[in-house]
Amino acid sequence: MDKLLDDTEAAVRVGVRQLCCREGTQARSFARGRENLQHAAQLTLGEERFRQVVENEGKTVLKAGESGQLELDWSGKQCVTLTPDGQTTTRLYASADGVMAPTTTQAEKDKRRETVKKWRKDTPREKRGKLQRLPAVGQGSDQKYKQIYVTVLHDQDQAHSLVGVTRKGVRELARLLKREGERVGILEAKERVGNVDGAVCLKSTLEVLPLHVTTLDFFHFSEHVGEAGVATLGQETPASREWLDKVLHTARHEGYAPFFQQLVAWRTPLRGGKRKAADALIGYVAPRQEMICYDQCDRKGWDVGSGPMESMCGVTTDRLKGRGRRWDIDNAEALMTLEALYQSTGLWNRYWQNAFNHRN
Question: Is pTM beyond 0.85 here?
């Protein structure tokens, strides 16, 4: 990390890099971010240089997190809340999810290179001027969209949050979760709750953390139950609404066993396509029985929704998405890492203060 900081510091000072990163992640494009920087701070950088500063800083932040150089000023013992009976406790929630980032494919890179070559060949010298040698073409993606994982650890009131990002697959996601859990001192929290949207791989990955329980997000659970109800009882009919309210109330307040009994009773008279829809729902909930423990969570005052996780998925990818936007996957990860740094309680200021101290 020191070498990366030294190389970047040699060209652009810390304060300028900080402003570039804020404008580069908040503006809708690097061109707009560069303009905002010029108007707000009277600093002028070329658009390409501005982009390089932002993306390189994101990669530096990512390496700093991987090497344990970004320490928090809070831990699980500061995540204080109240139990339903009014007792003081400490509680942490952990969650992970995958988002899709729009990437530049190898075919698109090759097509762009051919377009540039044709323009250079067909344009007279007096119009195009002296040409520089074309840089090497970077490796493009094999798909238009690639998955990047986002992790969130937060307290009950979301006054403390730690957001992480990785593009390197489920194994690296497990390492990231374990590393983030150690950073927040997860064992210092008396109550530790996981929440995922139902993906079995995410639940197994969260098991690297010492959690008391991992729940299936109630909203996603309700969507699956609702879709099955519509397929068997009709769209927005009194019968489907009554059935849906009944089974969701049972799952939320009475537990998995009574809920499953209701599903079996509902499935029995069905035939044909309706029975297939019922079987699909039963096949979805049965492997997730341990995660459908909403009644137990309610008694302890634990949340069963993944709202903070869904919010971070939207916030960290907002800069990536839009008409015509395509990214090299490492640059997409870098932009998301900067936003994750900003969303993590206290880390943005701490990172830049460390950068200033490194300069001095």
Answer: yes
Contact in structure between 54 and 335 (CB atoms under 8 Å): yes
Alpha-carbon gap, residue 243 to 269, rounded angstroms:
15
131 inside domain = yes
Helices (H), 184-327: 200-206, 218-233, 238-253, 256-267, 272-285, 294-300, 307-317
Instruction: Examine residue 230 and state whether it is found in any structural domain, yes or no.
Output: yes
Task: Look at the chain and report how many structural domains it folds into.
Answer: 3
Q: Where are the beta strands (DSSP E) in the chain?
A: 80-82, 88-102, 145-154, 161-166, 191-196, 213-216
pLDDT tens for 60-105 read: 999 999 988 888 999 999 999 999 999 999 999 999 999 999 999 9
% helix, strand, coil for the chain, step of 5: 60, 15, 30
Domain with 116 in it: 106-139
What is the DSSP secondary structure assignment for residue 156, as one 8-state letter? T
Query: Tokens for 211?
Result: 């959690």
CA 147 to chain centre: 10
Residue 162 inside a domain? The answer is no
DSSP of 170-188: HHHHHHHHHHHHHHTTGGG
- 206 domain residue, yes or no: no
Amino acid letter, residue 35: E
Q: Would you give the DSSP letter of residue 208?
A: T
Per-residue model confidence as pLDDT tens digits over 6-27: 454 455 788 899 999 999 999 9
